[in-house]
Sequence to fold (341 residues):
Amino acid sequence: MTPKEVIEFAKKNNCVMFDLKFMDLPGMWQHFSFPMQELKEDVFENGLGFDGSSIRGWKAINASDMLVMPDASTAMIDPFHKYPTLSMIADIVEPITKEPYERDPRFIAKRAEKYLQSTGIGDTAYFGPEAEFFIFDDVRYNSAEGGCFYAVDSVEAAWNTGRDEKPNLGHKPRYKEGYFPAPPVDSLTDIRTEMVLEMQKCGIEIEAQHHEVATAGQCEIDMRFDSLTRMADKLMLFKYVIKNVARRNNKTVTFMPKPIWNDNGSGMHVHQSIWKGGKPLFPGEKYGGLSDLALHYIGGILKHARALAAIVAPTTSSDKRLVPGFEAPVNRRPGRHPEQD
Fold:
């Protein structure tokens, strides 16, 4: 949509507010909302000012004035606000130069796409993430002077087979046996379908939804692949929808890599390909039916795996997931120690 079309779209849907969402450096969506009368066509060109000093990984307070620029192509009606609200994803720019802010993750994605095109190798990089998550019924944690703890729970959890649930009906997936069991063992198929329906309303194309391997409510919903920046936008919207649908069903969702000890954790496998002129460049006649380009692409990931780990597996919980016996990769290159590289 054009800016003019966005404003007409908002009027047609009786919006009283518009909401702008953007990402901090560690990858969490931030937002703020404005009365609908503040949205004029020039806002899409001039942006709206805000203080970025408290955004993680951004500027110091003495240089924190920034502009948020709505992207008209991302306009939609937010499905979770009580009052009709227009929602858009925004870019962050410097207020004086109007240059994109270098720590805005969305700009980093756009810059990567431009770099690919500048090489002449391909014109589009497609990404298809498979984001796994847990749907819990209860989450508690605390860290204080006198002690610390965490506790998660689910009506599906194998450790609750003996709990008095007035009545306990059983049908709880055993450890490592949560992959594809039919209801009533899979008690979450309806809530996943509700998530899918909401995502489809938001323009996300969904391929499948299913229970995952672990006990205690591990799930997966698969999106159709898309280009890098568009897919990044969709993944953030994906998480937003899933967490809010869970909340309105009195449940909670986590994408934490390893919330449960002694069962499979949640990963995010990412299918990747490079295309040019509408044709994929990875199929070929070499090993595994791949092209030289695909083999070099894989080699590049392996070569830089230690550095990439800081981005793709950055937390303590990530490390706890990457252990033998739980279907997560633990070897970068079989039979080769990192110090040999």
In short: The radius of gyration is 22 Å. The longest strand covers residues 124-136.
